[in-house]
Amino acid sequence: MQVHATGDVEEYAAAAEAFLRADPCARNVLLTIIDLVRSAPATYNAAPSFWWITDSDAVVGAASWTPPHNLLVSSLPPEAAGHLAEAAIERARVLGLRPLGVVGPAEAARAVATAWTAATDDTIGRDRPILLNEVVSLVEVPLPPGARRRGLAQDVPVIAAWLDTFSAEIEHVAPGNALAIAGHMVGSGHLDVWVVDGQIVCMVGYRDAAGVARIGPVYTPPEHRNHGYARRLTYEVTAAALELPGVHHAMLFTDAANPVSNSIYRQAGYEPRGEHVEIDFAKRNVERRH
Questions:
Q1: Which pTM was predicted?
Q2: Helices in 106-219 by DSSP H: which ranges?
Q3: Could you give the domains of the chain?
Q4: 9 vs 3, 61, 109, 238, 264, CA distance in Å?
Q5: Which of 41, 82, 124, 207 is the most exposed place for a label (fewest CB within 10 A)?
Q6: Of 246, 272, 274, 278, which Cα lies nearest the Cα of 259?
């Protein structure tokens, strides 16, 4: 078993993309990162890093790190976790940075995080279960006041502020360049908003890769909540995505501990299909504040 490393997205794609496409829902974020690094490198604040794991000639695992985001891993053989962690630790040393955690399918992410913390002065500060949800049968939900429209350039400053606020609310790693991310989402046509009396009150982003549309982020500012905007916009964005050529499935991730968001998406026909985790690192013997 061997871990291969590169900073070249094309080398990584040539080696690992077929493996990622073999499970396009569970590995969807890894797939879309390839596209984002190609098309919007300014959304990251350091050079990306990529790894793939082979057993003989077969790819059996993959990972990427796009600072400031966490190390993202696919499913992988348990015996590969330590080798991947070792390679990522070396890359972090070269860059003078460190991932703030690990994200991926529960078993693999926990194995890599355990290997990482055994070899560093980091410890696991939080292990948050995340549900991978897929549409079984899309269900229309009630129509609130207002209407959906595509995000426009004029929306970008507001969307950027919402991305920062959303990250803080869910205690997620803040975007490296929220303005660049918002601009790319709008410019590439991957963000819709709900508008009431000329004011945007909710946003839903989406990406598609390997026949799967991944919905998110979904955000409604507190003053506009409890009106059904996010539920309806998610339904409409999902319906539109499923009409795209080659798209056959829709999915999204939710915090397993948030019954409100999980209920909203289930009303539209999403059902849990697997558990991922977001693991945050903390320094040993240092109090972590949330």
A1: 0.92
A2: 106-119, 156-169, 178-187
A3: 2-129+277-283 (3.40.630), 138-268 (3.40.630.30)
A4: 16, 16, 22, 29, 36
A5: 41
A6: 272
